[in-house]
Amino acid sequence: MSRKVFLVGDGAVGSTFANDLLQNATVDELAIFDVAKDRPVGDAMDLEDITPFMGQTNIHPAADYSDAKDADVCVITAGVPRKPGETRLDLVAKNVKILKNIVEPVVDSGFKGVFVVSANPVDILTTLTQKLSGFPRNRVIGTGTSLDSMRLRVELAKKLNVPVAKVNSMVLGEHGDTSFENFDESTVAGKALRDYSEINDDVLAEIETDVRKKGGKIIANKGATFYGVAMMLTQIVSAVLDNRSICLPLSAPINGEYGIKHDLYLGTPTVINGEGIEKVIETKLSAAEHDKMINSADKMQEVLDGIEL
């Protein structure tokens, strides 16, 4: 059976993801759709040049929505990117309209695979993708706080001078201003984070600020962030294609976890495989962190309540 990915959006994130995907997964077909028709043509020719090293992939540069029909995964990176000084939630009105114009024709094509969303605000757009598509909730995934969590692990590794692979710590909740770090449960090399002499509340507050502001700093310096999220997309899509179970903090459908009563997607540890979401994990949180998770859900619901589809 052909392993096919349909990519909507060939900007900085989309094109970087396509490059990462071909180098890290076996893909028989990659169909690239973008409203700017010339960009996918150029990217397809550029990507062809790496196939002698990575294996043959049939790349469709002039795709339209009908090409999604037999895809295993539809990856949505299309949307207006964040500008310096903007928050992810500032993008809601702009990107909801774009999302609606994507999801409906993809579904109409006969697509039966898994939606993977990375456009911002990702928790809002992932929730709306499920509602617009009518798909089972396990077949819609958002990148969520996976990128935030990688940034957190990097900062902790630097602070403690340890390999990043030894850091077990996550950012949860919204991929945005109401996110929070699960410092109380974090471990480094199997040892509780708070047991390290270098760690105190002031240090953790500084790390939290650095993690939260890193995306904005990258945008201020180079105009966009794309390497990290493209690699997270590659991890997600390859797990779906390979039917390989992995666990990441993703935008996942909340169904009473953490006592949240809203019907939405939010960043929490999530096991994914070939069917999409296999399991949503309600991870252990301290009382203070639990309150932050509830607050994050409440803020997302406020935004959702103001959206007319």
Sheet with the most strands: spatial strand order: 3-2-1-4-5-6
CATH architectural category of the domain at 4-142: 3-Layer(aba) Sandwich
What's the tally of helices? 9
Q: Could you tell me the strand content as a percent range?
A: 15-25%
Question: In CATH, what is the homologous superfamily of the domain at 4-142?
Answer: NAD(P)-binding Rossmann-like Domain
Largest sheet, described in full? 6 strands, parallel
- Tell me, briefly, the overall form: globular
Q: State the separation between the terminal residues, measured CA to CA.
A: 36 Å
What is the strand tally? 14
Main attributes?
309 residues; six-stranded parallel sheet; three-stranded antiparallel sheet; Rossmann fold; single chain; globular; alpha/beta; 9 helices; 14 strands
Overview in brief:
The protein is an alpha/beta fold and 309 residues long.
Structure description:
The chain has 309 residues and is α/β, with parallel strands linked by helices. It has a domain at 4-142: 3-Layer(aba) Sandwich (Rossmann fold). Helices cover 42% and strands 18% of the residues. The chain has nine helices and 14 strands. The protein has helices at 12-24, 38-48, 51-54, 92-108, 122-133, 146-160, 201-222, 227-242, 287-305; strands spanning 4-8, 29-33, 58-60, 73-76, 114-117, 140-142, 167-168, 171-172, 180-181, 187-188, 191-192, 246-253, 265-273, 276-280. The chain has a six-stranded parallel sheet with strand order 3-2-1-4-5-6, sandwiched between helices. Helix 6 (146-160) packs across helix 7. It is globular and about 55 Å long. The model has no long low-confidence stretch (mean pLDDT 94).
